[in-house]
Amino acid sequence: MTAVLEVSNLRKAFGGVVAVAGVSFEVRTGEILGIIGPNGSGKSTLFNCVLGQLQPSAGEVRIDGKLTTGMRPCDLNRLGVSRTFQLLQVFPQLSVRDNLILAGQEHQGSMASRLFGRADAGLGDAAGQMIEFFRLAHLADEPAGALSYGQQKLLDAAMAFMAGPRLVLLDEPAGGVNLTMLGNLRERLHAYHAERGATFVVIEHQMEFVMALCTRVLVLAEGRLIAEGAPQDIRRNPTVIEAYLGH
Amino acid sequence: MTRLAGVVVTGAALAAVVAPFFLKPFGIFLISTWVVLTIAAIGLNLTLGYAGQISLAQGAFVGIGAYTVALLTPMGVPFFAAFIVAGLLCFAIGWVLGYPALRVQHHYLAFVTLAFSTLVFLVLRNEEWLTGGIYGIAGTPRPSLFGWSLGGARDFYFLCLGVLALLSLATWWMLRSPWGRAFVALRENPIRALSLGLDTRRYTLMAFAIGSSLGGLSGALYAPLVQFIEPNSFTLNLSFNLLLMVIVGGSGYFFGPFLGALIAVLLPEWLRVTEGYYLIVYAAAVMAMMAFCPTGLLGLIERTAKMLRGRRKAAVTQALTEGAGP
Hints:
Helices cover 37% and strands 25% of the residues of chain A. Chain A has 247 residues and is an alpha/beta fold. In chain A, the strands form two sheets. Chain A has a six-stranded mixed sheet, sandwiched between helices. Chain A has a four-stranded antiparallel sheet with strand order 2-1-4-5, covered by helices on one side. Chain A is globular, with a radius of gyration of 18 Å. Chain B has a domain at 27-235. The two termini of chain B are 40 Å apart.
């Protein structure tokens, strides 16, 4: 299988603190890759460097073989790379429907055509389908800020999928979500993956969620990659256990 | 828009059309000032209320627009051409002023725009060769349109009202388009917006440029309205006044600037009965409003309407459950 994402020797330092210390890995087309590691191991920083939110201190990022290091997040998004954030990131005053239309509208036409074109940028139906898919139909016209935390997490994920990305990076999608909603979210992610064949990279602490969702897992500790393998092997890996439980 | 809101807006528009037939010249001057300042406030509402970029420079753009028309028309440039030049010039300057907003936000951005405002005032006052300095520029002529002279107070009012109607429609169109959604996204969460493919840099600059351009167009009408402009009309005071209009009316509400400008223009006149105390009463009213209703008057109206609707719904549910009971 070909690599959608290639990260080589990526390093990010904040002054004297090295958050990511030379990490290399590949993500293959269609896989669901999990990235786990204790708090402060550099997972989110790694995401932010891959997605242009932060400039890496060194190293390279390639998407479909194209060098994308230093590209702006909006340009990367238009290349078909999407993400969710660790903390909730919806637009509270916009309705659920408008949140979804917003998530897709910049992929339609030019800036000028968006000004003179339709108010929903031609995405009304697509937003409706996504709302159905994530089972938010009864909340479609509510402001996103009025939704429960779990529902906002679903909306957050739905927004990441709205533009039909080929690569989606999910930063702790299960964080703070109750068990019922978690099952719902996992099932929707699986369904989307099966339907569209998108590639996922998931950062997560909730081990059950990772084990059930991911096909391969990378483990980060202190900014370095310490293990890689199938979920069941990672669970038994002594280095991983030590990194999580300490000395 | 609900049906009631539609009725209120239509009624207000009709009132604006018939009002000058019942008013004395000073009254017509006041409502003309309201119309002209509403245009500038709509611009600021776009930059601040929708896109979330604070600007204390809107008064300066009104000044730039006013001076552009006051300087160009005596050279023989037709008013409507000068009017468009004023808008374009302020668009360009607003675009450039937007660059600091890409780096700093909130009170830091307020200071940047405040410095710009002071800079414009100094240029207007000190560059006598161009602006006439403290002596200002008198006698900017009022235009005529297709042979219809707009020199009279009422005729000129209708020109201003027509321009307001056109610019309001254009702004409304823009805000209901994907751009409006993008501006709100910029205000609510620029980092997430960027990750969804929004070129936040371009939208920020656009919000500044269009908002400033509306300030310039407002100034372009202000010069022939008052027919005497001088630098002191465009100090920070005007910028603060415009900011007050946006906040009092309801920042981020389409009709907020209309209401805010009406209050800012009319209230001081109504409060004249309090003589020397009117500024104190005015200031106290604004402070009370900010404390109890920071979302402005339209925010207050919306909240009340929601509460009433909630109560009515609760009453209906109660009636239904009681009716369904044994």
